[in-house]
Design brief:
The two termini are 39 Å apart. Helix 1 packs across helix 15, helix 3 runs parallel beside helix 9 and helix 4 crosses helix 8. It is built from 16 helices and 13 strands. The radius of gyration is 24 Å and the shape is globular. The chain has two domains: 143 residues, Aspartate Aminotransferase, domain 1; 232 residues, Aspartate Aminotransferase, domain 2 (3-Layer(aba) Sandwich). 42% of the residues lie in helices and 12% in strands. It is α/β, with parallel strands linked by helices.
């Protein structure tokens, strides 16, 4: 066992040796970054995604042979809803065609419409904002906490106006936002919370699973997600009446009627239904979910300890009440000063050359041109005055989010399904790049 008196240099040299199966001498040419002629730190591939085997092949074949492919004619979607609600310890579940569809359905059932304002995070996938715009409501951005990359609850209250109709916070990357703080604001202002849990399957706030704190919680099963059916989504709620109205909306405004027989309509809606194929896939994939999640947690802890020793690439903090991180993303903050002034873009290029895929994450959604294009449209100009839009532009500044977007580095969830030695190879790549940061910056 290494003594705690060992120097950081010795620790890192040992980690590099374990990852590269080379001698530990850091002056060896193999310790140079790949961009400077050294050997790659990662010589094998990270696990592919999705994980699948004969279970998926045989069960999908059974759906094909059954001839019951759509919702309402088969039982697989309903079986998935039951199993997922039990897994998440939720009262009710409705499966939808995507995470976007789950969010859109929920906002419509909440009555969000033209003239309303919805508070949302600027550090998220654009679907969280697109569904607000699809309701012809106004997205109002709370700032981001650059330490956690989650929505900054302290900034929410300052964004509330007389037109605020809901709060749509995002549990980002497998972590959780500060649920207690957001709930306190919502109760004080009598506002509903729609939890965007699309990236946080099995994540927990104080041992309770995300998606179960607000009026509703929405999940995505898109191809990159930890629970995957190519496309798909779900709504969780403790309110049976709310779920029933969601069912009607996602079923073209119809209740739980027999397809092709009953053509009565109780409300407006869209076709946002999940198919039997996806329902079956989700049940298969869900059988592996907890085991995969535990492996991500273990690898994240091991990688985090090594990166902390290296310095300069720091795993983001978890919110104080987050008792389980699902690690859809392994998110870090990059400090170029620690890497000899190496710009983040060059750092990412160097990491990819080492065989370690890394990205810079999201851009600032509050500054993207899609917003101006939406506000310039005829529909929005009929709803919102030029003065309101100018005010929006003035107030939707998010300096914390700007910092987050400039510092973030991501690894994807499938990388955390690799071996322990894969994590050591990642750390070895970071170590090499840091050692030669100044030279890489000049190259």
């Amino acid at each position: 066992m290494q003594s705690h008196h060992n120097t950081r240099r010795n620790f890192l040299a040992a980690s590099l040796a374990a990852a590269t199966a080379a001698q530990a001498a850091t002056t060896d040419s193999t310790a140079k970054p790949a961009l400077l002629g050294g050997a790659k730190a990662m010589n094998s591939s990270f696990p592919g995604w999705p994980v699948r085997d004969d279970l998926e092949v045989q069960s999908i074949s059974a759906v094909v042979k059954s001839g019951k492919w759509g919702r309402g004619v088969g039982e697989r979607v309903m079986s998935f809803e039951k199993q997922f609600s039990e897994l998440m310890k939720a009262d009710h579940c409705l499966a939808t065609s995507s995470g976007t569809a789950a969010l859109l359905t929920s906002l419509n059932v909440m009555g969000i419409g033209p003239g309303d304002e919805v508070i949302v995070s600027p550090y998220t996938f654009v679907a969280s904002v697109n569904i607000i715009l699809a309701c012809h409501a106004l997205p109002v951005f709370a700032d981001t906490d650059p330490e956690t990359l989650q929505i900054d609850a302290k900034s929410i209250e300052s964004r509330i106006t007389g037109r605020t109709a809901a709060i749509l916070p995002v549990h980002l990357g497998g972590g959780t936002f500060d649920v207690d703080a957001v709930q306190a604001i919502a109760r004080k202002r009598n506002l509903p919370i729609l939890e965007d849990s699309c990236q946080s399957h099995l994540a927990e706030w104080k041992t309770k699973r995300t998606g179960t704190f607000g009026t509703a919680g929405c999940f995505s099963f898109q191809a990159s997600k930890n629970l995957n059916s190519g496309e798909g989504g779900a709504i969780l709620s403790s309110d049976e009446g709310f779920i029933q109205r969601c069912y009607e909306f996602h079923n073209n405004g119809r209740g739980r009627v027999q397809p092709g027989v009953d053509f009565s309509y109780t409300n407006r809606g869209l076709n946002l239904r999940l198919t039997e194929f996806q329902g079956q896939l989700l049940m298969n994939q869900m059988s592996r979910l907890d085991e995969q999640s535990r492996k991500r947690e273990q690898n994240a802890q091991h990688l985090g300890k090594m990166l902390a020793q290296i310095g300069g690439l720091t795993q983001v903090k978890m919110s104080s009440g987050c008792t389980r991180n699902a690690y859809h993303l392994y998110m870090m903050r990059y400090d170029s000063r620690e890497f000899g002034g190496l710009p983040r873009a060059k750092f990412l290029k160097a990491m990819n050359a080492e065989g370690v895929p890394a990205s810079s994450g999201y851009s600032p959604l509050n500054k993207e041109p899609y917003l101006k294009n939406s506000f310039d449209s005829r529909g929005f100009q009929r709803i919102y005055s030029k003065e309101r839009i100018r005010q929006w532009l003035d107030t939707n500044q998010c300096p914390g989010n700007d910092r987050a977007c400039n510092e973030a580095v991501w690894f994807t969830q499938n990388m955390l399904l690799g071996s322990r030695s894969d994590m050591e190879s990642i750390a070895a790549a970071v170590q090499k790049i840091k050692k030669y940061g100044s030279e890489l910056a000049r190259a």
